[in-house]
Amino acid sequence: MSRTMTSESPEATSFPNPYSAGQLSKGTPFAVLAVSLAVSAIMFWLFQQAGDSDYNVIGTLLVAAILYTIVIYIYSLLVEGTRKAKDRLVTALVGAAFMLALLPLVSLLITVLTNGVARFDLEFFTYSMRNVIGDGGGIVHAMVGTLLMTLTAALISVPIGLMTAVYLVEYGRGPLSRAITFLVDVMTGIPSIVAGLFAYSVFALFFGPGVKLGIAGAISLSVLMIPIVVRSCEDMLKLVPNELREAAYALGVPKWLTVLKVVLPTSIAGIMTGVTLAIARVIGETAPLLVAAGFTNNLNYNLLEGRMQSLPVMVYSQYVSQGAVPQDYLNRAWAGALTLILIVMALNLAARLIARYFSPKLGR
Amino acid sequence: MTLPATAPRIRAKQRLGDRIFSSTALTAGALILAILAAVAAFLLVESVPALTADPDDVNILNGEPFWSYVAPLVFGTLWASALALLMAVPVSIGIALFISHYAPRRLAQGLGYIIDLLAAVPSVVFGLWGGNVLAPAVQPLYSWLTENLGWIPFFAPPASGTGRTILTAAIVLAVMVLPIITALSREVFLQTPVLHEEAALALGATRWEMIRTAVLPFGRPGIVSASMLGLGRALGETMAVAMVLSASGGITFAVLTPANPGTIAANIALRFPEAFGLNINLLIATGLILFAITLVVNMIARWILARRKEFSGAN
Questions:
Q1: Exposure check for chain B: N or C terminus, fewer CB within 10 A?
Q2: What CA–CA distance (Å, rounded) separates B11 from B8?
Q3: B contact test, residue of A73, A94, A203, A283 with most B CBs within 10 A
Q4: Distance (Å, rounded) from C-alpha A346 to C-alpha A342?
Q5: What distance in Å separates the CA atoms of residue A319 and residue B271, rounded to the nearest whole number?
Q6: What is the pLDDT of residues B252-309, one digit of tens each?
Q7: Chain B CB within 8 Å of residue A164 CB
């Protein structure tokens, strides 16, 4: 940007350029931004010197953004007129909105990382919480529970979701398919805790009140997972070119074999991506598991008997019921949160990789 | 092979595989309807005992009638979600515009991923962050607001000492619904007919005037339904609120005080692990009310989306 400024300046000094008269030069917004950042930084540095508090990074950025917005608006108003000034104001506001959204994300990732490493050690991944009071302990029981319940939920919801998507794309006509599409959309909006209450109610009717089972947790997760799977599979099946289906029909292939041997293999990469993303969505669910599967400190491999711990619920219970030394419990909660975020990120990354490497090679 | 002349057309051969496959698909589709119906039915069955029971038999109610127990929770749910939406919608529209119309084309997709990253963070982590980081950080601001702007009813003193007020919970909720609203409005903004935009620019409009005259009117239904979907998410969000808000019941519009109304979902999460007997039925009954509220909100949102057929794919 400095190059553009220097290249324009000799012309501007020799004679007025009719095309750039009454306009701010290209580098001006950046210069204003730099100046407002500097002013704000100096201001907060003085605050820091005066008081005893730490340097306030977020405050610096906020004040700089406000300063920039005001200065660029007034400057542009004086040089360019009302309309351009308003345009620059909106540009500044829109950029600020984006920065504002980054603020919590960055803050969250930094705090989880810095607080999580305290207990991110070998013991954390090799011990359960059985008979652990205070320091130590680990998340083996929670990992096992999360794995078992999420996989069971996937086993339940992938066939149902996939077949529903096949129905909607290949067979569905008329009011029933419209109703299903609408209700799938509505179902994506079911609050997660309601799904947990549903699973609890089903099992409470058969096994008596107060029942908490791993399988109930899995069912509540699958209620949340089915609509996500349906939506992503539906989108992927719709992407399969109609020419492929017509070619299969022209060769005399029955419809069900066309779907099974042509449509599904073509879209398998997209379906796998969708399923992975759906797993990533439900693996962090806390509320339904808290209600349906309960929490425990013990390792439990049996979905059909007894309470089952899961990673998000463990983070929650460590946070809510802090013992004699709260820091030990908080450390475990942060380390659990870090593990959870890493798992979700890994699943998202896996989904992208699947989409890239397993998608059908269309070109020759 | 000859056909009788009377046969108007060749009937397709009914294969066993076809029948099995299509009926399986149909069953799966119908199962969706069945599951939704089952959710409503089971919740209803389990909540009837609480509605018919004598309030004195239910510990949590403490002798109050059912509706006076539920009313503050419903209010808290709606109030927290409304505050969250009030903060999230303008910011989301700004981000969506930034990604669709302001950011350099090559950066835009990457920036979209960054915002989607927010959606990937589990709610329990948001709760942990909100309770341990955000609440202490905003507490001085709350004290300042109550001291200097306390005459505004919303900022009525006393300020909460921990910062765990309904406003903090609403901020966390706003961060959580932000990616949903952003993603949907971004899709809609990108679908604005390019000819409309170019026509506006050709008439000498600045970028903002082009957005105001071409993009925003086109995207309005999309923005409305995106906000409604965000509202649905905020209404049902459990863990973040349960971990951030220190609720004491009661209906109040003051957002900075230590006395805050709870929300239905957070109340269930906090009470359910220790609940027994009729208390469980009571909590399930409040869950049924939450289910009904979110169902209505989501249906309205989807209905608005469905009216504009082009947007139906933008999920």
A1: N
A2: 9
A3: A94
A4: 6
A5: 16
A6: 888 888 888 889 999 999 888 888 888 888 999 999 999 999 989 888 888 887 776 5
A7: yes
Residue of B nearest to A232 (CA): B315
A358 touches chain B (CB under 8 A): no
Numbers of helices and strands, H then E, in chain A: 15, 0
pLDDT in tens, B130-180: 999 999 888 888 888 888 888 888 887 788 888 889 999 999 999 999 999
Q: Which residue has the tokens 């496959």?
A: B21
Flag whether residue A249 sits within 8 Å of chain B, measured between CB atoms: no
How large is the ipTM?
0.87
* Per-residue burial over B60-92, b = 16 or more CB atoms within 10 Å of its CB, e = otherwise: bbeeeebeebbebbbbbbbbbbebbbebbbebb
- Which residue do the tokens 């692990």 mark? B273
- In sequence order, which residues have a C-beta less than 8 Å from that of residue B145 and are 6 or more positions away? B155, B159, B256
d(CA B290, CA B278): 19
Q: Chain B: residue nearest A159 by CA?
A: B28
Judge contact between B103 and B189, C-beta under 8 A. Answer: no
Distance CA A82, CA A73 (A): 9
Enter the tokens of residue B164: 């765990």
Instruction: Say whether residue B53 is in contact with chain A using an 8 A CB cutoff.
Output: no
pTM of the prediction?
A: 0.87
- Structure tokens that stand for A37 in this block: 């950042």
Q: Residue B41 is which amino acid?
A: A
Contact B206 A164 (CB under 8 A): no
The closest CB to that of A189, out of B127, B175, B229, belongs to B229
Please give the Cα distance from A343 to A125 (Å, whole number). 14
Compute CA distances A112 → A197, A341, A343, A345, whole Å: 30, 9, 14, 14
Nearest-CA residue of chain A relative to B174?
Answer: A101
Distances (CA, A) of A255 to A247, A249, B16: 12, 7, 11
For residue A170, the chain B residues in CB contact (below 8 A) are 25
What lies within 8 Å, CB to CB, of B84 at 6+ separation is B170, B171, B173, B174, B177, B234
Q: Which of A210-219, B51-60, B234-243 has the lowest mean pLDDT?
A: B51-60
Q: What are the structure tokens assigned to A45, written together? A: 């540095």
Residue where the block lists tokens 């299969």: A248
Radius of gyration of chain A (CA): 29
* Partners of residue B260 on adjacent β-strands: B247
Q: How far is A95 from chain B (nearest CA, A)?
A: 6
CA distance linking residue A313 with residue A301, whole number of Å: 17
Using an 8 Å CB-CB cutoff, list chain A residues near B242. Answer: 316
Q: Across chain A, what does the average pLDDT equal?
A: 86
Contact at 8 Å (CB) between B101 and B206?
Answer: no
Q: Do A201 and B42 touch (CB under 8 A)?
A: yes
Q: How many CB atoms lie within 10 A of CB B243?
A: 30
Q: Measure B96 CA to nearest chain A CA, in Å.
A: 9
Contact at CB, A256 and B21, closer than 8 angstroms: yes
d(CA B309, CA B89): 23
